[in-house]
Amino acid sequence: MISFDQVLLLQKKVESAVQKIVELKSENDALRSKCSELTNALSEKTELLNSFTADEQKIESSIKDALNQLNTIEDTIVTQSGAKDAAASKTEQPASIAQPSPKTEPAAKPVNAAPKAPATPVSNPVSPAPAEPQQSLDISTDKEETNSEEETVEEKFDIF
Questions:
Q1: DSSP letters along 98-147, please?
Q2: 103: which DSSP letter?
């Protein structure tokens, strides 16, 4: 038969088990609450990261566009200065180099030389207003094209 001492021991074990279950339930609730908080924080951080990534891509795209525009401007300036340098180097050659040799074709007339016009007296002493500056690109070739009066024909192309 079961003794009274065994019943009391069983009762103590049941009470301690019930108390342990209550403690574990409260700990489980606290852990679930903490897990929920961390999940919410993670989703907020993920949204923030996505926002930063999108902003970073926009900034990167804007910087690339600006650099492309600067490269285009630089290429245009280099091309124009290269043409001007080539024209300037032709006009700044010493007289011995500028003179055509008997075996070669005649050298091109300097690009910045203006065609000669007959001198006419100026009747209006008032000078006109200065015109807006225009960029132009002078193109010349080694061969001279001449008209009946043996004047050099120049071609000018405006760059807009």
A1: HSPPTTSPPPPPPTTPPPP---------SPPPPPPP--EEEE--SSPPB-
A2: T
pLDDT of res. 108: 47
As given in the structure block, the two tokens for residue 14 are 């049941």
Neighbours of 75 (CB within 10 A): 10
Q: How far apart are CA 64 and CA 136, in angstroms?
A: 30
- The alpha carbon of 149 is separated from its chain's Cα centroid by a whole number of angstroms, namely 52
- Band of pLDDT at residue 87, cut at 50, 70 and 90: confident
Global pTM exceeds 0.70: no
C-alpha distances in Å from residue 110, one per residue of 12, 85, 155: 117, 13, 12
